Amino acid sequence: MLENILERALALASGDEINAEDLQLTSRGTAEAEKTPVAAPSGLPLQERLDAIERKAIFDALEQTHYNRTAAAKVLGISFRALRYRMERLGIKDELDAKS
User: Fold this and answer.
1) Angstrom distance (rounded) from CA 12 to CA 47
2) Alpha-carbon distance 50 to 67, whole Å?
3) What residues contact residue 76 under an 8 Å CB cut-off, 6+ apart?
């Protein structure tokens, strides 16, 4: 977990040094996550619910990193290959290509 926090901070840091703001510990802590639960469409089968949550997390990370997929993977705490696989599985790559 610490490694993921540091990797995300390094990817988002504006300079050569990582500052406290780059760590985003207060804004992404568990207290805030509990205040803003992820809304999943009810009435869907479990896999579709999980896909909807995963899709939202990927789009949020892509928007946060201005659609830099390497940085988005770091924000999500996964490898670039894992992000690419998940995007293909969810059809997100096709949606991004259509927006271009």
Assistant:
1) 31
2) 22
3) 57, 58, 61, 83
Burial of 62 per CB tally in 10 Å (0-12, 13-18, 19+): buried
| Residue among 41, 15, 12 nearest 27 (CA) | 12
Q: What is the pTM of this model?
A: 0.56
Q: Report the alpha-carbon distance of residue 60 to residue 72 in Å, rounded.
A: 9
Cα-flanking dihedrals φ and ψ of residue 38, to 5°? -75, 125
Is the Cα dihedral 65, 71, 77, 78 positive or negative?
Answer: positive
CB 61 within 8 A of CB 74: no
Report the pLDDT value the prediction gives residue 43, as an integer from 0 to 100.
Answer: 79
Give the mean pLDDT per block of 10 residues along the chain (100 residues).
73 72 60 53 84 95 94 96 95 71
